[in-house]
Amino acid sequence: MEFELNLTTEELQKRTHKDYLTTKKMLDVDSKEYDALELGDKTALRHLVKAASVIDKINMVLDNPHNLAFKKFLENEIKKGNKDAELTKILFDAQKGLCSLDRESNMIELAKGISETKGKGVYPEDLDVEEFHEILIKMLKKGKVDEVRKILSQRTVVRRQNDELKATDYIDEFKDEFEIIADELEFASKTSTNSDFNEYLLLQAQALRKADPMLDAYADEKWATLQDTPLEFTITRECYEDELTGTVVENEELKELLDKNKITPNQKDFLGGRVGIVNKKGTDAILNVKRYLPLMSKNMPFCDKYEQNISADSNSKQTMADVDLVAVYGDVGAFRAGITLAENLPNDDKLSIQVLKAGRRNVYHRQIRLITSPDAKEKMQKRLNATLNPKLHKYYNDEADHWFTIGHENGHSLGPNSSTEGLGKYKSIIEENKADMISLSMLDILTKEGLYTEDERKQIIVTYASDNMMVSKPAMSQAHRVRSVMQNYYFIKNGAMTISKDGILDVDIEKMVPVARKMLEKIIDVQIKNDFAEGEKYVLENFVWTDEMEVMAKNIKSVSKTLNGKVESPLADKLLQE
Q1: Which of 51, 214, 290, 535 would be a feasible disulfide site paired with 426, CB 3.0-4.6 Å?
Q2: In terms of DSSP H, where are the helices of 153-279?
Q3: CB proximity list for 26: less than 8 A, separation 6 or greater
Q4: Which letter does DSSP use for residue 103 in this model?
Q5: CA distance 250 to 532
Q6: In the 3-class helix/strand/coil scheme, how is 463-524 assigned residue by residue?
Q7: Is the confidence at residue 488, as pLDDT, over 80?
């Protein structure tokens, strides 16, 4: 298939320049973390990297039906000496796809005539919202309930079949690829030195060979218990990219039919592969938070009205790991305006949570969060000078962002842990909003209990407020960024933050936690009601981009040219060649 490159030579040169394309470097070939591994774990790591790398191909298909053909086109053009194709390939590899929003919320399309659709690659490219709803209504009226349930499952690819739709489980759709991954996991289990980790690998391999969601549940259940393992391997499953499935709750006739037939619509999973070496010191520091989780659970708003993953009177089902990353592939490795700092999985829609009542696991990404170079620290100071009241600079601490992230990830395990699908396309925005407000609203309690000092509390608040500022108004599909704008507006509206006419942020530190608690109460109320109209009203009331935010955005852009980023994985690249 032939394509025409969309970006000009000038634009390609700009976007691939180091000032505009930041780099996150994973573990190097001579890293002390790799050297310290036992020989069996080094061998296992090689198989885990090979397994995870296959997920790149799978997720490219889920992301856009043209991704693989375009990748092959670029490779052929590069062989012919096409310099623009070389530069385009850098961007394609960085964002892992043809289409992506950049840091300023501009849609970057690498080939002419190919745009992103709401259904990405998991639905027919020509299927719009209205026809999607019409087909589902017709199928339900014909009694094809089971097929509609499969169509609205988080683990199926949907294609046209005459005038209807047909769903195929991911395991059947990508049978050859998953067989390769399963083989590599089984090889890894033969040399890895940790028996718990090996048990998980075998369960995950089994789940990749047969289209049975309960097999995934058993693998997830085991994965969520892993605590003292040398290695990290995860097939991540997140649903932020699917903008089509969630729309079904907006059609009253369709929603009534779905409710009548007890069908819960779940947005499609996009798949990532994460491989790393567990950092013991960092993990021990993170685990210090675990003993406070029951207290946080007890202090959640309206906690008597819903079931939480973490109980107020028992040990929490929550494991945690700080990981030195060897490689990130697929969805978790796609650098699209930003890249994931940490993940709390499995999500609420997974059977390990719903049926097995299993726990969750937080994994934190060290190479993505760490700011170590003098150049990076200098850039951060320039941003502070351009955006933050000088009297607050002493409270800015990039490590405090990590502390805040720990609270955020644990926040996903608190609050209503099911029955929020009725919020449709706003579900993920509100869930991310919830996790942020839990992290902030619990600060006073955790400081009183001794987890944080008073200075650390102030550092978390100021660092959060500063880092939460955006360089542009995001698209509604950017759940993490939409929630940031909502929070900024809410804090400004309630007098906890101000932005001057010159775009300088000031923070009333003592007002931040009470206002966060107020916002959290509203969030939990919306989640409990599980009503699309309520969720939409709440989001739109607070998703307000003000003139002051626009001035702030210009200030940030005046000191930071970054538009996107890429990942380099030297150790993984070497292991793939062995």
Answers
A1: 535
A2: 170-173, 175-191, 195-207, 213-223, 252-260
A3: 325, 326, 327, 328, 367, 567, 568, 569, 570, 571, 572
A4: T
A5: 7
A6: HHHHHCCCCCCCCCCCHHHHHHHHHHHHHHHCCCEEECCCCCEEECHHHHHHHHHHHHHHHH
A7: yes
> CA triplet 96, 101, 105: central angle to 5 degrees?
160
CB 169 within 8 A of CB 156: yes
HSE at residue 220, side-chain half, CA atoms within 13 A, is 25
Across the strands, what pairs with 161? 164
308 pLDDT band, cuts 50/70/90, is confident
Q: How far is residue 456 CA from its own chain's centroid?
A: 26
Please give the pLDDT value at position 376. Answer: 76
Instruction: Count CB-CB contacts under 10 A for residue 374.
Output: 7
**Residue holding tokens 């003292």?**
228
Task: Decide if pLDDT at 313 tops 80.
Answer: no
Single-letter residue type at 315 = N
- The answer to whether 70 and 106 are in contact (CB under 8 A) is no
Kindly provide the b/e burial profile for residues 149-158, where b requires at least 16 CB atoms within 10 angstroms of the residue's own CB. bbbbbbbbbb
- Bridge pairing between strands 164-169 and 497-499: unpaired
- Rounded CA gap, 524 and 429, in Å? 13
**pLDDT-above-90 percentage for the chain:** 93
Distance CA 222, CA 202 (A): 10
Cα separation, 226 vs 222, whole angstroms: 7
